[in-house]
Amino acid sequence: MPNEVGKVLQTAQDDIQRVSGDPLFSHSHDEIATRFQVVDDDWRVCDQNVRPGARVGAVGHIDFGVVKLDEQCP
């Protein structure tokens, strides 16, 4: 698992696909409110539930905590 904190959500998702070699899907949730991440390029990753260095293929669920690009992580 790469360290995706600070990256744009779309880039983080692309990284996961690249390193997993499988159609592995990630999830994301808004760290500030209950908003949907419709355009992934508008969101930045604040945290991830899987530690960097973990084997991505062995992970059942990847979840990113995100905020809009112009917001601060909590």
Q: Care to give the gist of this entry?
A:
The protein is α+β, with helices and mostly antiparallel strands and 74 residues long. 16% of the residues lie in helices and 24% in strands.
Low-confidence parts: none
The total of beta strands comes to: 3
- Number of DSSP helical runs: 1
Can you tell me the number of structural domains?
Answer: 1
Radius of gyration: 12 Å
Approximate shape: globular
Average pLDDT, all residues: 90
What is the CA-CA span between the terminal residues? 23 Å
Largest sheet: 3 strands, mixed
The strand order across the widest sheet is 1-3-2
**Oligomeric nature of the chains:** single chain
Can you describe what's shown?
- This protein is α+β, with helices and mostly antiparallel strands.
- The chain has one domain.
- The chain has one helix and three strands; from the N terminus they run H-E-E-E.
- A three-stranded mixed sheet has the order 1-3-2, with helices on one face.
- The radius of gyration is 12 Å and the shape is globular.
- It starts with 8 loop residues before the first helix and ends in a 6-residue tail after the last strand.
- The model has no long low-confidence stretch (mean pLDDT 90).
Strand and helix layout:
Blueprint (H helix, E strand, L loop, with lengths): L8 H12 L5 E5 L12 E6 L13 E7 L6
Parallel strand pairs: 1-3
Antiparallel strand pairs: 2-3
